[in-house]
Design a protein that fits this description.
alpha/beta, Rossmann fold, 3-stranded antiparallel beta sheet, two-stranded parallel sheet, 12 helices, 9 strands, about 15% strand, globular
Amino acid sequence: MPQPIAPAVKTRIAPTPSGYLHLGNALSFALTWALARQQNGIVALRIDDLDNTRFRPAYLHDIFDTLQFLGLDYDEGPRDAEDFTRHYSQLQRLPYYNALLNQLVEQGLVYACTCSRSQIAALSPAGHYTRTCLARQLPLSTPGAAWRLHIPAETVIAFHDLLLGNCAIPLAEQMPDFVVRRKDGFPAYQVASLCDDLQMGVNLVVRGQDLLPSTAAQVHLAQCTGATAFTSMAFLHHPILHEPGGNKLSKSHDSLSVSELRRQGKTAADVWRLLARTLGWYPEDITDAGSFLARFRLADVPLALQQLQ
């Protein structure tokens, strides 16, 4: 009897136009791209632009400039900034996000919260929400209220990771009652990301290890809404780059942005060698996307990266 044909790998590169892309972003893109290309898979470019408070046109253009500079191609998505704005912005997919939110409301899983970040920080030094508004039963229509998804105590989300193996994330501890609709009325990141992956037919999600709680949150959302295509997703959480001082690379620090490195005279080959060095590979053999792909082996991706100097 013939064996069923496995679906082709489809993944996405999903930057946010909230700052200039840094080396950590470049590494994530490279790993995502190589993993798909090695399996003759599909790569889509999706730009997450719902965080409009930090959006800048220069950051949007930087995404296309950086991908072209690195030589990373993709099969689906916007060709340039204008194409993105006209056809691919997340603002055009709000009906899908709101449909998922309505499903959560109908199931009685969300509640209104008016707590500010400073109020939450005063109650929890770690910044974890202490469910202050859970018992208040505020109307969801309360002005200036966010919507939170109630996470039952002791909730642990389990999934398999292609690099880390079996993962069990204590969601109720790490992301208690996370926000699903922001105070400005827009869907939160977890909702939009889940909907987009489902709508695009993505079956492989590649992220940094710092986003393990986000994956757990989205798996939980998928479980609540019966989105089995996401709960059966393949995941890979790669190690993340840190600054010389040990902090995680941030878009708020431009010193290690790809655009700044280019202004300093670094070539694409220089950046590819630097990425290879962080992986503990021989950088002399890697000068572009093609040589990175030729060297790429998932078994050779370390659980921790070499420190940037």
